[in-house]
Structure formats: C-alpha cells, structure tokens
Amino acid sequence: MNEQRNLFLAIALSVLILFGFQWLFPSKPATPTAPGQAVTAAGTPPVPQAAADAQPSPQAVKANAAETRAQALDKSRRIPVRTGKLHGSIALLGARLDDLTLAGYRETTDPASREIEVLSPSGAPHPYYAEFGWVPADPTVKVPGADTVWSSDAAELTVGGKAVLSWDNGDGLRFIRTIGVDDNYMFRVDQRVENYGTRPLTLHAYALVSRTGTPKTEGMYILHEGPLGIFNGTLKELKYDDLKKEGTVREKSTGGWIGITDKYWLTALVPDQKGEATGRFVHQRIDSGDRYQVDFTEAARVIAAGGAAEASFHLFAGAKQVGLLDAYGEKLGIERFDLAIDFGWFYFLTKPFFYLLKMFHDALGNMGLAIMALTVLIKLAMFPLANKSYVSMAKMKALQPEMQALQARFGDDKVRVQQEMMALYKREKVNPVSGCLPMLIQIPVFFALYKVLFVTIEMRHAPFYGWIHDLSAPDPTTLFNLFGLIPFDANAVLPGFLHIGVWPIIMGITMWLQQKLNPQPADPVQAKMFMFLPFLFTFMLGQFAAGLVIYWAWSNSLSILQQWVIMRKAGAKH
Question: Tell me: the pLDDT tens digits for 501-513?
Fold first, then answer.
C-alpha cells in the first residue's frame, strides 16, 4: 500500500480530528489547584489571615432579581464617568466602580445597538463591579464597606481629572479615595487612611472584582474565558466550572495582576508591582446564583497615632486590544499583561502574525484584504517547503500510469505490488514521504493564524466586501435558501451544520480542485475518502469565522496556482 497515501490520510484525519474536537466539545478543564481557606461572602473585602475572625456584612451580597439595571443605578448618588472610550459612573454608596460601558463597541454591527456593558451594579440582573478598601486586623475597627455612603465634591470624572471621595468613621480614622482614568481603559485608585486617634492600628489594603452569574462562553477548547492572573511571572487560568469545585484558590505574588476575562473584554486588578500581595480566586453560591470574585490583599500596614498610610491599585476595564495591553505592560511595568489574550501554545507565531495583520490593515484599510496579504506573505515564506512538496507530487503523478500497470500486473499480491513500487521510487529517485513532511511544518502556521483570527478583538465586527459585515462571525448566507433568493430564514430553521454560506462553498471548491492536482491514491478506499474530505470540510467550516474561511479559500487558490505551474514544468498530466 502506498506509504505516501497513508501519510496524507493521517495528516488529513489529524486535522479533521482537531477541528472536530474544537467544534463539537466544550473547553478542557484546567489542572485543579490546592483549595484555600473557606469562602467569605463574595462582593465583600477579602479577609487576611491576621483578621480571620472579621465577618463581612451579609446584606452586601443580596440582590433583587426584579430590579433593572437602571433601577439599581438609581439607588445611589453617582459621579458620572465620561471619556472618549468610556461611559458610566461611580457609586457613592460603597464607592464602587459598578457602571461602565464601552463607547467604541456595540453589541451588534448595527451602530444603533447598545454599547457593550463591562460593569454593572449590585441589584442589577448581572452584577459586575470593582471595589477597593481596607480590612482591619482588629474586627472591631470600623472601616468603609458596601453600605458606606461617601462624600465627594466631584461633578464628573474625565480624562486627566480626579474624583476625590472621603469618609470618616467617627472613631479616629479618615478614609480618602482618589480615582483617576486615562484616555483608554485604565483607572488608578489611590487610597489613603489617616489615623487621628490615640492608638496604632493595623490595616490591609485590598481590591476586588466581583461577578454574579456564570456568563455564556464560546465553549471552545482553544479559548480561555474566566478568572486568570499572573503570579510571580506565571500565568494561572481557571475555568468557571473549576473554580466552582475549588471554592477558593490563593496565590502569593510580587507584582503581577488578577482578573476575569471574556473573549474580547477584560477586568483586571494591578497591585504595586514591587510589593507582595496575596491574590485569590473565589466562588460562592448565593441566592441570586453563582458569584465569582478575584482579589488582591496587600501586606499589613501599621498606622501610628497621628500617622497615615497609602495604597494604590490600577483597574483595567475594557477591550483587550493587543497594542494597548503591550503599552500598559511597558508603561506601568505590568508583567505579561498581553497574556490576557489567549494566544495559545503558538504564542511565538500568533503575536507576530497579529502585528503583521495590523500592519496590512493600516496599509489596505480592510481586514479581509489584510488577511489575504498576510496569506501571500506566509506563502512566500513557505515557498521553498511548498515547492519541494509540489515537485514531489508532480513526480508521483507522472508515475501514476506505471503504478497502475504494476497493480494490474500483480493483482491481489499486495506485498509484491509494494516491493515493485519501492523499486520504482528508487529507480526514478522519488521519495514518497518528502512531498508530505513539509506540510507538517505548515500545520502550526495554520493554527496560529486561526488563533489570531479567533481571539483578537480587531477582527470583531470588521467588514469585508459584499455580504460579509463581520469577519469574526460565520458567513450569514446559506445554500438552502439559494443565498437569499428564496424569502425565508433558513438559518433560523435548519441545524447549525447545514448553514453553508458562499465562502465555505468557495473554500470547498478550491480544496476539491487542489485535490484533483494531487496524485490519486492507488487504494480505491483511500481515493473515496479523499474525494469526500472537501465536502466534509465545507460543512465543518460553515460555522467558522468568515475571516478564517476566506483565508483558507485564498490559501488554497494560491497553492493551486503554484502547484499547477510546477506540475506543468514537470510534465505531469492534470
């Protein structure tokens, strides 16, 4: 049996299995970590070991499911947040950042659709907020909490401005919180506590992000969504289901960051990058559902009578733009902040691919054209390997008549057929494997580009031409209503695997044409299997991002042209 056909079949089936696994099955669980201490009520300050007896206020976690987001916002006086990229407000009740939408991103491609909500207040259908404060070593010391009403003269928070909030506990402590925001998505929260009492006090500064309800995720093996962070230079990721099992996971770190990520959006807390802090991932089941919390607690600070202490945190709440995360990492010294984007195992390829894609987009003005330009560049880089592969295929195809003659001559004696074919390869100086091995090197390149197209926000709602208005979404057309000529919504009626649009069909045709240029397997079973693959891939890629399908169709077209020229020079019939 022809060894080359076996290798081709193995490669094709391997790719099929990989894609099928990602398409059909949900995310892989992360490796469990050792459980931490018992969970306190989520949405309240983390309790340091030195203050283990402190009890957070239980009413802080109650949520009224009947309230709308607007009603929840009306429960507190607020300081509006207005920048070019953010709209929202800061609640004076609890001094929380709990109302934030992204001015530059909408829920759909319709410019009139709602802005993406990043943060939402307690009491809303899906509370999601950031909170900062102090936890006392002595639980009898009064510190501000979720029910504290702060004072402020700030009328609005804008870029370059500051909102200063204050609260006095009436027992010797004054708390001052200063909040600023840049022209993107980074807040700076400076906390100061002044001790005008008569005895020293020990406090721990903390910052937390709390999210109620398990969000709908892509459910893809190749994408992490959920809690994550960098601790001592190492990335830690937890799926929501894993955190439910663990309850609490604790990580100590110097610097780093912790947060909760969606596919395109991120909330992340950044402590002092030179100080030590304890980070936690927390899950708790409450009346309103599952609540997830990530937090940092800094080391104890002893505040002498008449003295003061300060602590600063940064909060990122916005879109995961690659260049922006890189810039924050460099400017603020945040270690590996770009790993908030799941670049995957082929990081060394995916990130350069992204920047090349962005460069082409800046030059051509269209992300679809940028994908095509990047494909040409990849093809040029792979030209020597591809050339070797196609030359070998051309030689193999030229030997097809002799191979068929050997099969006819020796009939069912497969051992003799194999021996004669190997002798033929040796005589004609053809290596059946050499044409296939270069393809193995191209597989990581394909997956790396797939990652770039799938996880980067720059692809979201990026239009191409014609009917493609979002390269990150599947082709909206379908064969089963003749691509819109028959007036019914086939995509709403038919199961997902039958949503076959124009671009998947184009991709399938190019795959079939490329297959016709290759030497046909001698084994009729293998030949039928190969004939079936273009149809299978057409249906399988029907629900993939249009950008990826365009890449594959264009890549196939370039390969067909290159292969046709080489085979013509080699004298192979096609």
Answer: 899 999 999 988 8
DSSP string of 286-349? ETTEEEEEEEEEEEEEEE-TT-EEEEEEEEEEEE--HHHHHHHHHHH--TTGGGGS---TTHHH
Sheet holding 265-270, edge to edge: 151-152, 162-168, 173-181, 186-195, 308-319, 265-270, 257-261, 226-231, 234-237
- Residue 271 domain-assigned (yes or no): yes
Which contiguous run of DSSP H or E holds residue 179?
strand 173-181
**Which of 280, 313, 342 is the last residue in one of the domains?**
342
> How far is 302 from 415, CA to CA, in rounded Å?
84
Place of tokens 């009626």: 493
| 10 pLDDT above the threshold of 70 | no
The last residue of a domain, from among 342, 364, 389: 342
Copy the structure tokens of residue 290: 């599952």
368/458 Cα distance (integer angstroms)? 12
Nearest to 189 by CA among 206, 203, 201, 202: 206
Ramachandran bin of 128, using left for φ above 0, alpha for ψ from -120 to 50, beta for the remaining angles: beta
Tens digits of per-residue pLDDT, 23-76? Answer: 433 333 333 232 233 334 444 555 444 333 333 333 344 444 457 999 999 999
Question: Are residues 520 and 426 located together in one domain of the fold?
Answer: yes
Residue 26 lies in a domain: no
Cα distances (angstroms) measured from residue 566 to each of 382, 383, 394, 397, 571: 15, 12, 7, 12, 9
